[in-house]
Amino acid sequence: MPRRAGQVAKQQNTVDTVTGSDPSEGLEYRLRLPGPTAVPRHVAQATAMPVVNHRGPEFRALMTEAEALLQPVFGTKNRILFFASSGTGMMEASLANTLQVGERVLVLNSGQFAERFAEIAKALGARVDTVECPWGESPDLAEIKTRLSGADYRAVIAVHNESSTGSVAELAAVGALVRDTPALLIVDSVSGLGGVEMQQDAWGVDIVISASHKALMCPPGIGLASVSEKAWPIVMREASFPRFYWDFRKAVKNSENFETPFTPPVSLMNGLLTSLRSIHEEGLKNVLTRHRVLADTLIAGGEAMGLKLFTHGRLRSNTVVVFEVPEGISGGDVVRGLYDDYRTVVAGARNRLSGRVVRIGVMGDVDHETILTDLAHLEAVLRKLGHNVPVGAGVAAAQGYRDA
Ligand SMILES: *Cc1c(COP(=O)(O)O)cnc(C)c1O
């Protein structure tokens, strides 16, 4: 007998079955990645609303409100462009719309996602230069300035919140250097937007791209872009890299009508609108502060257990906490232990930090209690792996941090 589609879906798509016949079956699944992030229940429910005509009044109202609520999150008065896309698709789109064959870009190489941006630029056919900096540190502003005066760059490319290192770029300072040159400043804020302050207009960022599944706490699937007045004449050039689906010219034309050129992820847009309403109800400033406090609570607890923060001080991220694991322990073992024993899903690294770090997101449906639980789990796993942690040290430090 062929199985009905519904049966297959039920067996394969529920989180419960991920546990299979494992003895820890029934544990709650705890998504604590730097993205995708845990989606609050009311946002998930909004994605289950009936699908509406994407060129009808209901969707136009949705898109109108979503844009209005996103603009303050971006810190912009620009139109917001919506795509069905992951974050990487938007990185590619930002370059396909601004570059011509042979043009040069300057990538501020602060980590893995900056490296990805450079790879995309190369794949498209741009000439790519980089400003190198040690991971966890900030690219040297004087070097950026020198490089900009020494060559004809079409764009400077930066990552707002580098999820591989847990560090935040000094965008206001970079923007001040790029503003009066012909170059555009293109920024990946996939894991920043909604968790780390972004002031696109004030800082002179020409293109900000982002996505739904990080601090905007929606399921993956919506890509976002905001394009400055300085950038539009560049985007409008005929002889750009090949583009069709990603063409910002089509997207902005359709946006006048609160439509997208092609079918948007209607259900996800319902979720995004719900999430944005929550963000504004709480107050954008409070939302950013909440991420800061949650990250610092986790940092206080981790440090009390002997974990070293990868990016220190004012560059440390609000949304992604990166710890170096103690000597003799592999980051991968910590990731596996948290999953096997607690169904807590954190990230390791698949780059030059492989084995050395664990990366934990504090975005999405996370509160103080979530962090305390994470720390208790982390402690048990570290102890099991032979790292001598005083009982309750992490949780005590986290509690102490909040009460301080
Ligand atoms: C998650 C992330 C991306 C995009 O990843 P996708 O898997 O394509 O959504 C890009 N940049 C940064 C900094 C990210 O954290």
Outline of the structure:
The chain contains 15 helices and 14 strands. It has 404 residues and is of the alpha/beta class.
Task: Pick out its properties.
disordered N terminus, 15% strand, binds pyridoxal-5'-phosphate, single chain, globular, alpha/beta, 404 residues
What does this structure look like?
The chain is α/β, with parallel strands linked by helices and 404 residues long. It is built from 15 helices and 14 strands. The longest helix has 21 residues. It binds pyridoxal-5'-phosphate. Pyridoxal-5'-phosphate binds next to helix 4.
Fold topology:
Layout: H1 5-13, E1 30-31, H2 41-46, H3 57-74, E2 80-84, H4 87-96, E3 104-109, H5 112-124, E4 127-132, H6 141-150, E5 153-159, E6 161-162, E7 167-168, H7 171-178, E8 184-188, H8 200-203, E9 207-211, E10 222-227, H9 232-235, H10 248-255, H11 266-282, H12 284-304, E11 308-309, E12 320-324, H13 331-342, E13 344-345, E14 357-361, H14 368-384, H15 393-403
The chain binds pyridoxal-5'-phosphate.
Helix percentage range: 40-55%
Strand order of the largest sheet: 2-10-9-8-5-3-4
- Which overall shape is indicated by the principal axes computed on the Cα atoms? globular
Biggest beta-sheet profile: 7 strands, mixed
